[in-house]
UniProtKB/TrEMBL annotation:
<keyword id="KW-0511">Multifunctional enzyme</keyword>
<keyword id="KW-0486">Methionine biosynthesis</keyword>
<feature type="binding site">
    <location>
        <begin position="165"/>
        <end position="167"/>
    </location>
    <ligand>
        <name>NADP(+)</name>
    </ligand>
</feature>
<comment type="function">
    <text>Catalyzes the oxidation of 5,10-methylenetetrahydrofolate to 5,10-methenyltetrahydrofolate and then the hydrolysis of 5,10-methenyltetrahydrofolate to 10-formyltetrahydrofolate.</text>
</comment>
<feature type="domain" description="Tetrahydrofolate dehydrogenase/cyclohydrolase NAD(P)-binding">
    <location>
        <begin position="139"/>
        <end position="281"/>
    </location>
</feature>
<protein>
    <recommendedName>
        <fullName>Bifunctional protein FolD</fullName>
        <ecNumber>1.5.1.5</ecNumber>
        <ecNumber>3.5.4.9</ecNumber>
    </recommendedName>
</protein>
<dbReference type="GO" id="GO:0000105">
    <property type="term" value="P:L-histidine biosynthetic process"/>
</dbReference>
<dbReference type="GO" id="GO:0035999">
    <property type="term" value="P:tetrahydrofolate interconversion"/>
</dbReference>
<dbReference type="Pfam" id="PF00763">
    <property type="entry name" value="THF_DHG_CYH"/>
</dbReference>
<dbReference type="InterPro" id="IPR020630">
    <property type="entry name" value="THF_DH/CycHdrlase_cat_dom"/>
</dbReference>
<keyword id="KW-0554">One-carbon metabolism</keyword>
<dbReference type="GO" id="GO:0004488">
    <property type="term" value="F:methylenetetrahydrofolate dehydrogenase (NADP+) activity"/>
</dbReference>
<dbReference type="Pfam" id="PF02882">
    <property type="entry name" value="THF_DHG_CYH_C"/>
</dbReference>
<comment type="pathway">
    <text>One-carbon metabolism; tetrahydrofolate interconversion.</text>
</comment>
<keyword id="KW-0658">Purine biosynthesis</keyword>
<keyword id="KW-0028">Amino-acid biosynthesis</keyword>
<feature type="domain" description="Tetrahydrofolate dehydrogenase/cyclohydrolase catalytic">
    <location>
        <begin position="6"/>
        <end position="120"/>
    </location>
</feature>
Length: 285
């Protein structure tokens, strides 16, 4: 494999070994970290991600509970499940798989999760603490990207990082975490008039927009590090990122592939957060 590739599977596996060891230490003290995942509806991709989360928990010795609910589930019914999990001593982390069916208010659901069990890092309390640089649950995908950069020895301080995309889940926290590591950060989005003029200034380019292969060689500065958060299907139904991998490859210093880049790190960081939550419970007791 080319040394230009930032391999999320390998880096994730290294981190998972550490988690496994720490989980065992907790279990030896009589505490088993527990994660509850709620899946509403029948989105095929969500089913895959949730199955992968369950498998990863089982491999690392984390207790997991999957609550599958039909797509007709009302918001009130969903909130009742969350209320129970909020006070369930076996559960350290609660994750509601997104996206939710349209009739359910996502933000309302996120805000109903106890901040102590918010292993997704989406609750306003977690977001506020993250912005202030205080210890909290960091959102899994941006946190995973930071780990990829760290494990790949990519220097961040003093570099120009350009984030394309401004979702609350990825783009916005991504820029903040890079800023906290002393990058100069530029956000780009659908209203940015000349995208290439911005992205060609990036030493580190993070793309999280959900549009297959939209970033081409013309958007890249020679020697840039490119992180592709996209997860799309191309015209042949093959999984691909937001970056046209083949088009940019010659120009970049390093790049994450899709699959095998950021995706596996999202699940790894969920396990990190679940462990962190279980450890915090021990400290409180
Ligand atoms: N509550 C949440 N919902 C969603 C999140 C999230 O962080 N919290 N993120 C995404 C989906 N996601 C995790 O839930 C996720 C996406 C992709 C992968 C992954 O490992 N992808 C593989 C390819 C998998 C495949 O073959 O389809 C890869 O990139 O190698 C993991 C997790 C939206 N919802």
């Amino acid at each position: 494999m080319s040394n230009k590739l930032i391999n999320g599977k390998e880096i994730g596996a290294q981190i998972r070994l550490t988690i496994q060891k720490e989980v065992k230490e907790l279990v030896d003290q009589g505490i088993t970290p527990g994660l509850a995942v709620i899946l509403v509806g029948d989105d095929a991709a969500s089913h895959t991600y949730v199955a992968n989360k369950e498998k990863a928990c089982a491999q690392l010795g984390i207790y997991s509970e999957l609550i599958r609910l039909p797509k007709e589930t009302t918001e009130v019914e969903l909130l009742a499940h969350i209320a129970k999990l909020n006070t369930d001593a076996k559960i350290d982390g609660i994750l509601v798989q997104l996206p939710l069916p349209k009739h359910i208010d996502e933000q309302h659901v996120i805000e109903s999760i106890s901040p102590h069990k918010d292993v997704d890092g989406f609750h306003p309390v977690s977001v506020g603490k993250m912005l202030l640089g205080q210890p909290t649950f960091l959102p899994c995908t941006p946190h995973g990207v930071m780990k990829l950069l760290q494990y790949s020895n990519v220097e961040i301080a003093g570099k120009h990082a350009v984030v394309v995309g401004r979702s609350h889940i990825v783009g916005v926290p991504m820029g903040q975490l890079l800023l906290q590591q002393d990058a100069t950060v530029t956000y780009c989005h659908s209203k940015t008039p000349d995208l290439a003029a911005m992205t060609t200034q990036a030493d580190i380019l993070v793309v999280a927009v959900g549009r297959a292969k939209m970033i081409k060689a013309e958007h890249i500065k020679e020697g840039a590090v490119v992180i592709d958060v996209g997860m799309n299907r191309d015209e042949n139904g093959k999984l691909c990122g937001d970056v046209d991998f083949d088009d940019v490859f010659e120009k970049v210093a390093a790049i994450t592939p899709v699959p095998g880049g950021v995706g596996p790190m999202t699940i790894t960081m969920l396990l990190v957060n679940t462990l962190q939550s279980a450890k915090a419970k021990v400290k409180l007791a």
